[in-house]
């Protein structure tokens, strides 16, 4: 009997899945950091423009 359980227990498959999962997590983390940094940079840019308007 060849069940999904037996294929899932194969070490090669589980290692491949583990590495894929780690890679996805890293990409997600970098994406979140990138988005957050992008937002802070945009906010600083807006604040800078606002202060320039106030000076004028």
What is the count of DSSP helices, taking H or I runs of 4+ residues? 2
Shape descriptor reads rod-shaped
Q: Strand content of the residues, in percent?
A: under 5%
Average per-residue pLDDT, rounded, comes to 75
Number of strands: 0
Uncertain segments:
none
Computed structural class: mainly alpha
Estimate nothing, just give the exact number of structural domains: 1
N-end to C-end Cα span: 79 Å
Order of helices and strands: HH
Largest sheet: none
Roughly what percent helix?
over 70%
Radius of gyration, CA atoms, in whole angstroms: 23 Å
In brief:
It is rod-shaped and about 65 Å long. It contains two helices and no strands. With 56 residues, it is mainly alpha-helical.
Could you explain the architecture of this structure?
With 56 residues, the protein is mainly α. The protein has one domain (13-55). It has two helices and no strands. It has helices spanning 4-8, 11-55. The radius of gyration is 23 Å and the shape is rod-shaped. 0% of the residues are buried. The mean pLDDT is 75.
Keywords summarizing the entry:
mainly alpha; rod-shaped; about 55 residues
Compile the SSE list and pairings.
Blueprint: H1 4-8, H2 11-55
